[in-house]
Amino acid sequence: MSEDFLANPSGILGLIAAVFVLIIVFFVNRHIGRKKHLFDERYQQTNNRAKARAWDTMIVIYLVAWFIVILFDGIGFSFFLLTALYVLHNVTAIITNFYFSAKGE
Fold this sequence. Notes:
Radius of gyration: 19 Å
Number of strands: 0
Oligomer: single chain
Shape: flat
Strand content: under 5%
Largest sheet: none
Helix content: over 70%
C-alpha cells in the first residue's frame, strides 16, 4: 500500500460514499424513467450504440495509457494492472457477445 494511504486511510471513505451515491441515483433514475415510460425501443437502440462507441473508445484509451506507462514507468505494477484491465475488458466483450448470440437478439 502507498504511504499516503497508510498515513490517512480514511481517504477511501470518499470512494465508498461515491459508490453508495451512485447506486442510489441509479435506482431513483430507473424508477422515474419507468414511471414516465422513457425506456422505449428508440432509447434502447440509442443507448446500445452509445455503449458500443464508448467501448471502442476505451480500447483506444487503454492502448494509449499502456504506451505511456511503458515509456515512463517501465514494465512494472502499472503495466500489469493495465494489461489485466485490458484483458478483462475484452473477455467481458467476448462473453456478452456469446450470450446475446445464443439468446438470439
